[in-house]
Every structure is written in structure tokens, then in C-alpha cells.
Task: structure prediction
Amino acid sequence: MPQLLDETAKGVYIIAATPFADDGGLDLESAERMTDFYLECGVSGMTILGVMGEAPKLSAQESADFVSRVLARVKGRVPVIVGASSAGNRNLGAFVKKVMDMGAAGVMVAPIAGLKNEEQIEGYYDAVVREIGSTPIVLQDYPQLTNVHMSVSVINRMLAKHDSIKVLKHEDVPGLRKLSKVRAADSDGSRKRRISIMVGNSALHLPQEMRRGADGANTGFAYPEMLVEAVNLCLEGKFDAAEDLYDVYLPIVRHEQQPALGLAVRKEVLRRRGVIKSAHVRAPGYAMDAAEHKELDELMARLERKLAEIGRATKPFKG
Amino acid sequence: MPQLLDETAKGVYIIAATPFADDGGLDLESAERMTDFYLECGVSGMTILGVMGEAPKLSAQESADFVSRVLARVKGRVPVIVGASSAGNRNLGAFVKKVMDMGAAGVMVAPIAGLKNEEQIEGYYDAVVREIGSTPIVLQDYPQLTNVHMSVSVINRMLAKHDSIKVLKHEDVPGLRKLSKVRAADSDGSRKRRISIMVGNSALHLPQEMRRGADGANTGFAYPEMLVEAVNLCLEGKFDAAEDLYDVYLPIVRHEQQPALGLAVRKEVLRRRGVIKSAHVRAPGYAMDAAEHKELDELMARLERKLAEIGRATKPFKG
Amino acid sequence: MPQLLDETAKGVYIIAATPFADDGGLDLESAERMTDFYLECGVSGMTILGVMGEAPKLSAQESADFVSRVLARVKGRVPVIVGASSAGNRNLGAFVKKVMDMGAAGVMVAPIAGLKNEEQIEGYYDAVVREIGSTPIVLQDYPQLTNVHMSVSVINRMLAKHDSIKVLKHEDVPGLRKLSKVRAADSDGSRKRRISIMVGNSALHLPQEMRRGADGANTGFAYPEMLVEAVNLCLEGKFDAAEDLYDVYLPIVRHEQQPALGLAVRKEVLRRRGVIKSAHVRAPGYAMDAAEHKELDELMARLERKLAEIGRATKPFKG
Amino acid sequence: MPQLLDETAKGVYIIAATPFADDGGLDLESAERMTDFYLECGVSGMTILGVMGEAPKLSAQESADFVSRVLARVKGRVPVIVGASSAGNRNLGAFVKKVMDMGAAGVMVAPIAGLKNEEQIEGYYDAVVREIGSTPIVLQDYPQLTNVHMSVSVINRMLAKHDSIKVLKHEDVPGLRKLSKVRAADSDGSRKRRISIMVGNSALHLPQEMRRGADGANTGFAYPEMLVEAVNLCLEGKFDAAEDLYDVYLPIVRHEQQPALGLAVRKEVLRRRGVIKSAHVRAPGYAMDAAEHKELDELMARLERKLAEIGRATKPFKG
Result:
């Protein structure tokens, strides 16, 4: 019986890519290698079929196959969250039931496009919770992508109303003050439980967010070992050591955080590191050109040089 | 001493155009004729320098001159609201002080662009009220233009907090249910006063809005005499008669309601009716072409035919 | 062998609703009655699974069942266009192949969200055409919904490049001048063929659009018989007679054109007319309340009164 | 006679803040110190009243006073560009005339909000050029702020048509490929002149942009000495040395790049460095709280530690 996601979630919940072959077909073998890689990096959980997982470009069958294969590979060692955002609640409900039956630990739900004010946002999550009952939810607050904007108040109201929302995936920008305010409600008596806050937004502000009380990272940086080490250092209170390490990777974090191009870069780094066979992004999607490959060569070479200066190196994944 | 705007506002508060000469210069003579025209049509108030008044295209001096000339012409016969939306609160405050000193009855304030959630919206109006004290405010809820979205809750919170907000200019779409909900708070004990709700959005849903409890129209249709008659009939409870009249004009209401083109059409109708000398819209703005003039010819001719069928006619303004 | 859509398309291509039972299940029996109704109204074609068809809220199986049942009922009497917009081109391609194999006459493709400039728009349609070959396409230009903005130039460039784009579904606002400009390119030598332009946007500007050269309507107004009669009158050059008729229905056209509420109203009118069993809209979606039902009662009663004045009446559908 | 901006512009054109006193009044004394500071840092030019200069929050008189004082202080040593974006072309024209008469070297013009397609964008700049004649223009391409999206094609068409556009301020995201494409048109025969490309977007991708052929930076980072040194190294072809230096500051570049908060941080760093007296941002604007001050303390302390590791330090400005 797999463990369900709860409010104690912390560490790195890696946002997994969905590997395709060069011809665009789903590459389940790479999915298994990628799963091994993430586990070897020490992640505390995995989130599959998120935004960066190209979920809306999969067929229903492909989604099911991918979820099934990843879950089988993970074998319950870490919780697996499945992205379940959907244009219709009925489809969402059916999909959630399916993946929870398969052994997922919870689902991530971003607000659908077109929610324009806070009554609409609240009404939307009320309906989602009615649809999926007590299934644990990661609430994704990613306005740059969804164009749905939640204030701290509406987030706190929803957390108060729906016990099944266990984790806030925080990726608003600017977001540091917002994170602190949501965190504050855990201890000022206004909320009965302490929720988990995991940060996304490509980890661009990870050290500052951890200092402000985040519980970990829920993003897909292609060097997850750094995320794991930095987050663990922060959880031990060693913020400066964490930031020293993080800053070495910041040039690539910053590069990967670019919309559209970012996913292509992320997959290409995983490919170069021996994790997945092809960096193919399904259309419509970004395909790197020669200049972008060269740029990435330089950034990766610089990373190795900077790591060498502190007696470290990245290592390709052996599988 | 001019009367200040309060919650009893009702009838038609016409949104006035700002007349320019063909060369783009401010035409204060036409402004006076236009003022006479609106008063002759029986409006209960005027709103100048609103969105349709091309306010951001005027220089500070032109704004002052225009406000001053209109106020002098009105001579206190009806309240004059001045649009005061501004990118900076300090400028807003200085402008509000100036026009209130001149004799304006209140100001209309739309939320600035970029307010993304309800805490930000509330914070913005808190700051505006701090800046302008007890000056009566028309709160403009026009998300199609501002891209700022207010739920009923945030509107009601702001009405509860700020007594100086006297009128809601309602122009959200779809907006009928929203109007009813704001209205309901007047009588269900949750608000201590009944506020005024005037409808905008080019009066496209005026009859339905009046049936739901609006107090009048705050828009700039180029046949204000119809708005006045229809709103008065509604205020007497003669909704069907009002709608019969309104529907005759609906084809032009619908035509004028188009963004960008609408202002050009509105000014051209006013010009044709003898109200203003030129239909010039300042750049960047829409300039009607021959096909659009012909289209308007047809729509205006159809209006006269339909009016003739019920024994009526529009009359050019003699001034 | 069903006829494929081509540039001669004209008349009314009705945008069909997707009927659900009160419990949200797909109601294929109502789908058949609705098909009969549309055909009885004299439509020249049908578009199913468009925006108003709640396509993204159907499961893959439901979509296939619905398409199949409608096609079987139509029996080739009119062309059936299937909405095929999709977040991924591979899914889009597979779906298009399936529905064309079933007997669809063509597909409607709106630009995906997030296309921000004209190179991206052009690149998107290039990729779609590569994916679906010579399948006839209705290009949907509906920026209010998609937030993708096409100038006349980019539309004309795509029409020049892709012969398979047969119809422009025109629903930009303001759009009249745009329609004329696209039309002009048919005859000024810059395009080798005359394309079909069908208007959407709930037919809010239908008479003006037909006068400017549109070939018909591609929208879902719940009184299709009016659309058919008005469009036919226009195609015979009897524009004033068409507009006289249209204007009687304009209050309801205007009411139905409201976003979100509009679909609920449209389905409710179809239900009241005996066409579909339930007006259910799948969540997330608008559910009419008592005030909205009363409002619709009044508008429908007014329509009958106005029709009676010209010796007409709507008739419930007998099936 | 001041030199006008031309296509040879390179180096750092600093985006200047507008200093206010704690009570919100314009602080012209700080403006002079800030000017001295920028010049001492070695900037090649200054851009005042840009987005970060809070231009729309100044009164007309304040704008004129500020421009005048800065120009007087600069005494022609470097070109000064003035932000001239305006809602109306007539106001824009009058303002441009005024500042050019005062001795500005050119103006920066961002597209007004609401330009939705490329015909509209092109039409807008056509009108601006008609209004201001041959005044040298910096074309600002900052879609994250303006929500106006330009493809490479429309940028190149405008550069071909308007010789007075001398500089592209490039700040689209992702933007690296776009920069290369605009650059390519300088040498592939499609454009008769090589234009200047300066990068904005808070310099978040400066090293990559310089490697791709940018001529410099046009942003307001609060350690301009780093921008100057890094850009100069790049212009000498020493890209790796430049990036080594840049990366030390990247944590703060990344922190400052946050919308809204960024300006407050930038002003606070300038205040701490002794450049301006107050970090006041005019309302509506971001005011840093205690947590944000502490966060900045830590980031600035880390910067000094990292600089010390390479035998460097920042130095407060003595004025």
C-alpha cells in the first residue's frame, strides 16, 4: 500500500521530464532510466506529468503507460505525484481515480485558464475537491503560466477549507514575501496545521525561499543532485553552505529558467548526462539550434571548471 | 457651492467625449455645445475625462481647461464627475484636489493596470482613499479594459471600508449576476448603506441591468435622449416600455460598443447631429474609412425608419 | 464518399452544442435530435466540437462516439466540420485522421494559447499542415478567446501558403474592416483563389459582415432558422430585409453573446424548444440561476411578441 | 551642440533611477550625485525616465526639472536618452521636442499597451516617427511589461523603414535566438546599416547576449561598475573573463530582476552605497519590509565575501 502525500513533505520532489524518442514516440525505457537517475540523486519524491512533463501532448493511453511504468520502477521508495490539471472536472476526476488506483501518492492541480477573480478560483477548487474527494492535492500557484492570480488570502482560505490540500507549490514572482505570509499562517493560530511549501519557478530563488521557510524544491533542474544537497543543507540550517553550492549552478539555473527554451535545455542536459536517449520535445515545442547547443556547451564547461575549483565534478549517469 | 456626489445618484450620467478640431487641437467651443446638448437631453450628471474622453492624450493644461470650461457651462445644474485614473497616486491626488476645487462633484477611479489579485486591488484603493480623503469616488469595474478583475467580495469589502465610494460603475461581462449580488448586499444587512450602481459597457445590457436594480447608466451613447427616456421609464417600473424603446436603438448601441471603432463612431454621430464640429480622435486612435462611414449611414437611416414606424424621429441639435 | 469542405462554403454552418444528461453523461439521443433540428432549420453545414461544444471536457471515447453518431445521423446531407484544436500536434494529427476517416468534411483549428507573435502563429499553422496534410481547414480567428492576435497580413500569408485553409472563421473585434481587407485580397490579384469567410462571434454583427462580403455564419445561435433566413436574404442581396429580420432577434443574440453565460443560455433555449433533453453544462461551466431563468423567460416572451407583430412565431421542434 | 544617438552606440547605457526624498518629493540633489556616480562608474550613456525611472508618476514639471538637471550635470560627456513613451502621440511629440531642445541625444519609445498585432505595431511606430521626425529612437522590445509582442520580422521591417531607429533595446524572453536573428540581418544584406543592440531585462542573460553580438547593456543594475567592466571585456573578446566577473554578481542580478520588488531593491542598494539619499518608491510601488532588508543584507554581504575571494571589493560612492 503506497503512502499518500501529506503535509510533512520536504526535500526535493523532482519535476520529471517525459522522454520521447527522436521520432516523437514515448520512450518508456528512458523513463525507467530517468527514474533510476532521480532516485540515485536522492530525491524525496517525483512529480510526473507536470507542466514540464508535456502532459497535454500525450494521449490518454500514453499518460497511463507512463504513469504505470514510473510507478513500477519507483516501487514505493518515494511518493509519486501526478499532474492532473484538466479542462473538465469529469475528465480530471476519472484520471485522478485511475492514477491513485495505480499507486500515486497525490495529484498536482493548477487552476484552469480563465479564472479571473478569487471567487472563481475558490469555486474551482471547491468543485475539484468535490470531484476527487480526499485525494491529496498539490496546489500549484504559477501565475506566469496560468495567468490565474491568487492572493495570500485566497490561498489561506482554500487551505482552511480543504484538508486535502497538503502542499503549496509556490512559484509566483515576486514571491518571497508571499511565501513568508503563507508560512506565517501556520503558526499564528489562523491555520490548524502546518502545510508543506515546495518551491518551483525553476529554483531561481531557492536559497532565499529556503531561508524563508520553504520545505523543499518541486522543480526539474537537470542537476537534481545539487537541489538535493542544497535543500538538505538548508534543512539542517546550513544556509550559507547551501547557497555557496547553489551559486555555482546558478548560471545554468538561470539559463534553464527561460520559458519554452528551458524545457529543451533541460532535456538536452539530461541526454548529455546519459539519462534519456533523446532530447526531443513534442510539437509545438522548442527545438534547439546550433547556436543554442554551443551556448549550452559553454555553460556546461564553465560549470565543470567552477566545480573543479572547489574539488568537485558532475558525473555522467551510468544507469 | 456645488453639490457632491452621493449614493442617491441615479439617471443618466453621460460619459462625455472630448471634442478636438480637425487638426487635433482641443475644441472648447464644441465642448460647450456638447454640454448644452447633454443637458438638453436631460442627463442627470456628466462624467468627463473618462476612458472615452481620451484623458491620457490631453496635456495637463488641456485637462484643466476642459474641466474648467465644462463646469462653467454646467453652472451646477447637474453634478460633474471627473475621471482621475492615474499611474501615480501623487499625481492623482494633485489632480483630484484641483478639479474638486474647481467644482467637480466627485471623481472616477479605475484600478491601475497590473493589479493582479484582490489584496493588490484592495491595497490600491486604500492608498487612493488615503491620498484624496473624503472626495466622492465612482469605482469603475471595467476588466475588459483594465485587465483588473474584482469579485463581488472585494467590491463589497471596499464599499464597507470606504464610505467615500458612492457609486459602482458596473461594466464587467458577464455582469448581470454580479450586479444582483452587489445590489443584494445593500439590503441583506451586510452593508450599512445602499450604494448607487450605474452601468457602463456601452449600455449593451441596459434593460436587463435596470431590471436587476441598477440606478442608471454611466455611458456615452450618442443618442443620450434614448438613455434618459429608457432609464426614466425603468425607474418608474415601466421596464417593457423602456425595453421597447431601447431595442429600436440596439443595433447602434451594439455597433458603438465595439472597442476602438466605437469612440470614432460615437464622435461621428455627435458631429452629424450638430453637437461637435469634428469627429477627430487623437492618435493613436481609430479613424473611420469610407466603408465605415457608409455603414454608419445605413445604421442611422435604419434607425430613423424604425423610429418613424413608431411615430418618432431623432432631431439634430440646434445648439 | 463524403464531400470535402472547399472554398465555396456558404450559408449557415451551425456551431453545434454537445448535449449532456442532467448527470453530465453524454446524451447521444439528444445529439441526434439536435442534428435533425439543425437540418430542419436549413443549415448548410455543421461544426461540432468547437469551443461552444465543450470539446476539451469530453474524453477521447466520448468525442469519437459523438462525432460518429452525428455523422451517421447527417448521412452526408451537409458537410460536418470537426473542431480539432489540441495542445499537441501529434494528438491533433491522430484525431484529425480519425474523424476524416469517419467522414468529416474538414476540421477547425484555432491557434493554441501562447502564440505571441506572427512568426509563431505562422510557424504553428505550418506545423499543423505538415501534420494533417491536405485535410481542409477552417482557420479560426477568435482572439477574445485564444488571446492570439492575427493581422490581415499574417492571415493572407497563411492563406497563400496553405491551399488547405478553405474557410476563415472570422470573429475578431472590431472586425468589420479586417473582414473587408481579407475579402479584398481575393480580387486584387494578391491571392489566386477566393476563400470562404464565415462569421462567428455569436453573429453580433452579422448584417454588417454580410454586407461586407461574408459568405455566411459559423455560430451557434439557438434560433438557427433566423440565421438561415437572414443569410439567405443577404446572399440574394436583400440586405435590408435580412437586417429587419435579424434585428427582431438581436436582443437575444446580444444576450447569448455573453461569455460563459452564453453557452448556458444557448443550451437552455434549445432545451425549451424541445431540441435537447437537458441544458447541463459540464464543470467548470456556468449554471443558470433563478434570476437568469426569469431573464430568459422575458427575453423569449418579448421575441414572440415582436415576431407576432410581423405575423410570425417561433415553433417548438417536434423531432 | 550635443551629439545625437546613432547606430554606433555601445557599452553601458545605464537606466537611471529617479530619486525621491522620503516624503516623495523629487530629490534633484540626489539626481546630481547619482549622475556623478554613473559617470564615475564609466557608463557610456544614460537613459532617464525609463520604466525603472517611474516616469508616469512624475508631473510634467518634475519631468522637465529632472531632465534639465541631469543634462546640466552630464555636460555632454555622454549621450542622455530620455524615455518618451506616452499614451498620446501629441503629448509624446511635445515632450520629445522639449527634451531634444534641452540637449537629449535621443528618446526611448516602448509600444503603447493594446497593440495586438504586427500591423498595429508597425502603424504605431509609423505615427510616432511622423510625429517626431528624425529624432533618434531606441526601440524598446519589452513584452513582459508592455504585453506587445514583436517578431523579428516586424522589428526588421521597422528598422528598414525608419532610419531614425538607431538602437534596439532587447529584452524579450526567451530572447537569445531573437537577438541573433536581428543581428544577422545586419550582415546578410537585408539591412543597409548595422544597428546597435543593447540588452535590458535586468542583464539576466548579459554574457550570453554579448556572445551573440549585443553591443552593450541598457539596464539599471545597482553595481554599474560590474556592467561596465563585463561589457568592456566582452567588447574586447574576453568573454570568459567577463562571465567570471558577472557570475559573482549574478545572485544579486537575479534578485534585482524580480518585477516590482526589483526597483525597490535597486534604489535601496544605491542608497546604501551612498548614491541617493532615500530609497523611496512613489505609490503605487513596492516598499521593502524588514525581511526584505535582511535578505538584501545577506546578499550584499555574500557579494563582498565572493569579491574578497578574488581580491576585490565594492566601494561606497564618495560623491
User: Anything to note?
Assistant: The radius of gyration of chain B is 19 Å. Chain B has a mean pLDDT of 96. Strands of chain B lie at 11-15, 45-48, 80-83, 106-109, 137-141, 165-170, 196-199, 216-217. The first helix of chain B runs from residue 28 to 41.
